[in-house]
């Protein structure tokens, strides 16, 4: 099923169509693009086979995947016929800017900073896939202003983070890191002083979202008492108990673990005053974001013995790739941290398990394909969420119009005037702040009319981005 022939059987054998972003892209009718369900064509009534919408030949879609995105995600994108370039690490800003000018889709994890400066160079960019939970590395507001959708995977690695934290609680309580380092150096140091069971100890969870609540269940199963603090009132799992303030939590917990997003309010949320409030001999764990803990204050509290141990998985500055980078050049206190005992340092591996990475690869890649091919925004973190049921194979002269626009009065009237020569079969429109997203499936569209529709919509003063899929 080639999209060109579905629309217009008489289409010339080579054609140029207007793409979603206004470039002229040459497409070849010889490259037949199969819907994933096309192979079912003989078994199902024709009406139930969704039509795969294509703005143009998928080989024209260029995707850059950074930070070793899992093979599951790469396979899904490659199977669509997109051009996929996958790199193992992130890129320095100048190289990123160079690459981003040319691509339609970028896939990243937590290291790649997609700031306004970088995104303003991304003239063709349609969508960003964050193959992780956090989206703080992307300027979401600017992306929305440009009509660039952002997707993430909201919980596929939550369990992996929670399990890491459980491991760290026991490791800190038993000083396992230090004993192991000593043995690697040939030193036998059998001690029990200040080594504890975790049974009956209190775990204080800051941020009771996907990770915090999962951790709560695991910790209780191991005999811990769980308290949590969150800005939102949330249902307690098991016998966990929400406390009214961060101070309450710090004063009561033997282990404090942080699971909040990077927000202006969470930056240096744990500094000298909060560390002083923590119990003598208590422990701190941070697997959220490096900005949440004031590290020099933590170093001081650990040197004094007030904090008996800590585990850090995240840092204010993290290197783009693997190597000998954890030095003062990266963060000015790195070498001091490395000299402390009972301090577990891990290189942002909370979500780094085979299970999590495979699941994230599938989830985010599928969201990207749905968005590229059909304009569906379900799960987007910065655009209104909208979907229309698929067009089917018995609707050959249909097109899907997607109009991302400023949320100002009178837009729908103007859009419907433009679409008015065609039958609007179904339409959805939703807004989020200053931005609105409209999808309309129109029928009786001849191939030659697509360019006119596209140009008329692009000519409206409210336009941010227009796409016509057919
Ligand atoms: N180390 C790693 O590899 C990973 C780190 N993360 C980090 O963990 C963070 C948390 O992840 P999820 O649990 O999935 O997020 P979530 O969004 O499900 O939960 C976050 C919770 O924090 C609460 N919160 C927000 N501001 C707060 C404040 N000022 N004080 C107290 N509570 C506050 C929210 O109400 C929410 O309940 C992510 O934002 C990400 O930065 C996530 C995955 C892997
Ligand atoms: O695995 C990664 O690269 C990032 C994990 C993380 O911090 C997240 O999912 O927010």
From TrEMBL:
CDD domains: PGDH_3. Pfam families: 2-Hacid_dh, 2-Hacid_dh_C. GO terms for molecular function: 2-oxoglutarate reductase activity; NAD binding; phosphoglycerate dehydrogenase activity. InterPro entries: ACT-like_dom_sf (IPR045865), D-2-hydroxyacid_DH (IPR050857), D-isomer_2_OHA_DH_cat_dom (IPR006139), D-isomer_DH_CS (IPR029753), D-isomer_DH_CS1 (IPR029752), D-isomer_DH_NAD-bd (IPR006140), NAD(P)-bd_dom_sf (IPR036291). GO terms for biological process: L-serine biosynthetic process. It catalyses: (2R)-3-phosphoglycerate + NAD(+) = 3-phosphooxypyruvate + NADH + H(+); (R)-2-hydroxyglutarate + NAD(+) = 2-oxoglutarate + NADH + H(+). The keyword Phosphoprotein applies. Pathway: Amino-acid biosynthesis; L-serine biosynthesis; L-serine from 3-phospho-D-glycerate: step 1/3. Its EC number is 1.1.1.399, 1.1.1.95. It is an enzyme of class 1 (oxidoreductase). The keyword Amino-acid biosynthesis applies. Gene3D superfamilies: 3.30.70.260, NAD(P)-binding Rossmann-like Domain (3.40.50.720). Residues 167-350 form the D-isomer specific 2-hydroxyacid dehydrogenase NAD-binding domain. PANTHER family: D-ISOMER SPECIFIC 2-HYDROXYACID DEHYDROGENASE FAMILY PROTEIN (AFU_ORTHOLOGUE AFUA_6G10090). Belongs to the D-isomer specific 2-hydroxyacid dehydrogenase family. Catalyzes the reversible oxidation of 3-phospho-D-glycerate to 3-phosphonooxypyruvate, the first step of the phosphorylated L-serine biosynthesis pathway. Also catalyzes the reversible oxidation of 2-hydroxyglutarate to 2-oxoglutarate. This is 2-oxoglutarate reductase.
């Amino acid at each position: 099923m080639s999209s060109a022939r579905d629309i217009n059987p008489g289409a010339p054998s080579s054609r140029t169509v207007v793409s979603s972003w206004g470039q002229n892209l040459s497409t070849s009718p010889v490259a037949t693009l199969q819907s994933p369900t096309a192979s079912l064509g003989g078994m199902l009534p024709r009406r139930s086979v969704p039509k795969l919408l294509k703005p143009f030949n998928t080989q024209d879609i260029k995707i850059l995947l950074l930070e070793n995105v899992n093979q599951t995600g790469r396979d899904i994108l490659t199977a669509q016929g997109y051009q996929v370039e996958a790199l193992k690490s992130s890129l320095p800003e100048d190289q990123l800017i160079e690459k981003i000018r040319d691509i339609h889709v970028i896939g990243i994890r937590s290291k790649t900073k997609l700031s306004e400066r970088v995104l303003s160079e991304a003239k063709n960019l349609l969508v960003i896939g964050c193959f992780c939970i956090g989206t703080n590395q992307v300027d979401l507001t600017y992306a929305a202003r440009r009509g660039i959708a952002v997707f993430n995977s909201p919980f596929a690695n939550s369990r992996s983070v929670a399990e890491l934290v459980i491991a760290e609680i026991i490791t800190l309580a038993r000083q396992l890191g230090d004993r192991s380092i000593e043995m690697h150096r040939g030193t036998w140091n059998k001690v029990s002083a200040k080594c504890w069971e975790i049974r009956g100890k209190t775990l204080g969870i800051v941020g009771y979202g996907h990770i915090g609540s999962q951790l709560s269940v695991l910790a209780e199963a191991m005999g811990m008492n769980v308290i949590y603090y969150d800005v939102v009132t949330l249902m307690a799992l098991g016998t966990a108990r929400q406390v009214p303030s961060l101070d309450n939590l710090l004063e009561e917990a033997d282990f404090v673990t942080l699971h909040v997003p990077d927000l202006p309010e969470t930056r240096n949320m744990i500094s000298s005053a909060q560390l002083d409030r923590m119990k003598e001999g208590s422990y701190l764990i941070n697997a959220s974001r490096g900005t949440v803990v004031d590290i020099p204050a933590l170093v001081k509290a650990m040197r004094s013995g007030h904090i008996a141990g800590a585990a850090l998985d995240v840092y204010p500055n993290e290197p783009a790739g693997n190597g000998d980078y954890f030095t003062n050049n990266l963060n000015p206190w790195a070498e001091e941290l490395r000299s402390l005992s009972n301090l577990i340092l891990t290189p942002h591996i909370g979500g780094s398990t085979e299970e999590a990475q495979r699941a994230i690869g599938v989830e985010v890649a599928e969201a990207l394909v749905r968005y590229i091919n059909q304009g569906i925004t379900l799960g987007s973190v910065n655009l209104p969420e909208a979907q229309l049921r698929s067009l089917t194979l018995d609707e050959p002269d249909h097109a899907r119009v997607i109009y991302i626009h400023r949320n100002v009065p009178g837009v729908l009237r103007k859009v419907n005037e433009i679409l008015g020569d065609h039958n609007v079969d179904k339409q959805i429109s939703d807004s989020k702040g200053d931005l609105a997203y409209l999808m309309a499936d129109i029928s009786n569209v001849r191939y030659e009319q697509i360019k006119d529709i596209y140009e008329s919509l692009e000519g409206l003063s409210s336009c941010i981005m227009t796409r016509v899929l057919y």
